[in-house]
Amino acid sequence: MVASPVPTPVATAGEAWGEAATWRWRGLAVHWRRLGNPTDPALVLLHGFGAASGHWRHNAGALAEAGWCVYALDLVGFGASSQPKLRLDNRLWARQVAAFLELVVQAPAVLVGNSLGGLVALSCGVWAPGWVRAVVLAPLADPTLLMPVPQRRPPWRRRLQRWLITWACRLLPLELLIPLIARTPLLDGALAAAYPSGRGLGPELRRLVARPALRPEAAQALRAMSIAMALRPRGATAPLLLAQLDLPLLVIWGSRDNLVPPSVRHQLQRHRPDLELVLLEGAGHCPHDEEPERFNRSLLDWLGQLPGPTLRTDA
């Protein structure tokens, strides 16, 4: 972890919770944080689109107190991690998380992901199952869940689609739009849509989301991300990943999620009839941050039933 000449208390709440450090992966800076005893079972929290590791500000402390060593990292392109001009999609992020588990955590972990982080957790659980004990989607966001299964298209149509999407993203004036959104009430409106009850809104949340968007590389990272996510192969989409996952799976969803329609929940059960779904009444798209007490309780109840390393008896 980052060394400090003067010992300071480790925060258990707020966006700067835990101890923070930077890890180099493939030449990229990856910001991450940890709270808890390193000998306890590992739990890795994965943020959603536009957020960062600090978004788990109301969860890390309770999970660590329950006997988990809690980690969180900023996915490449977000938070304080590098914002490169790479094809950023859930394939790259899943490789990032798998490498983090192997080289930093050095033990299999439970993955808990919000929104885009849920897709990354699911992807890592499928492609690196040896490093994942279980997957929690809170919730899962992927537009392919509402699309028909794509038919194989001739090569010329695939090339045309790639060309159209690439140029459409390049023509978008993201260098102007992103700072405009981050600096104006437009961001407040987006956050209010994700937090229908209003709980959790405030200057800390706004700062957590706006700060990375104002970095010089934010526009290039978002453009690269938009292209890569739109052009993913079918095998990297949620429907196929859900069918392949062979690990314990929990889904936690807010009943008032305005960003991902309720019909997506039914699609999940179509692909995984055996999945366990917890619906948090009144919560929106970020149930972990809007209703942290109920979220933490639901998560810990489920984690207590998992096979494998047991929690401390004094937790």
Structural overview:
The protein has 315 residues and is α/β, with parallel strands linked by helices. The protein has a single domain (19-303), classed as Alpha/Beta hydrolase fold, catalytic domain (Rossmann fold). The protein is built from 12 helices and 8 strands. Strand 1 and strand 2 (28-35) form a beta hairpin. Helix 3 packs across helix 9 (238-244). The radius of gyration is 19 Å and the shape is globular.
How is this fold's topology laid out?
Blueprint: E1 19-25, E2 28-35, E3 42-46, H1 60-65, E4 69-73, H2 90-105, E5 109-115, H3 116-127, E6 132-140, H4 155-171, H5 174-183, H6 185-194, H7 203-213, H8 218-230, H9 238-244, E7 249-254, H10 263-271, E8 276-280, H11 287-290, H12 292-303
Parallel strand pairs: 3-4, 3-5, 5-6, 6-7, 7-8
Antiparallel strand pairs: 1-2, 2-4
Q: How far is the first residue's CA from the last residue's CA?
A: 24 Å
Shape designation: globular
Number of domains: 1
Radius of gyration: 19 Å
Number of helices: 12
The name CATH uses for the topology is Rossmann fold
Q: Structural class, please?
A: alpha/beta
- Beta-strand share of residues: 15-25%
Unreliable stretches: 2-7, 310-315
The CATH architecture designation is 3-Layer(aba) Sandwich
Mean pLDDT: 88
Q: Strand arrangement, largest sheet?
A: 1-2-4-3-5-6-7-8
* SSE order, one letter for each helix or strand: EEEHEHEHEHHHHHHEHEHH
CATH class, named: Alpha Beta
The CATH homologous superfamily name equals Alpha/Beta hydrolase fold, catalytic domain
Largest sheet: 8 strands, mixed
The total of beta strands comes to: 8
What's the helical proportion of residues? 40-55%
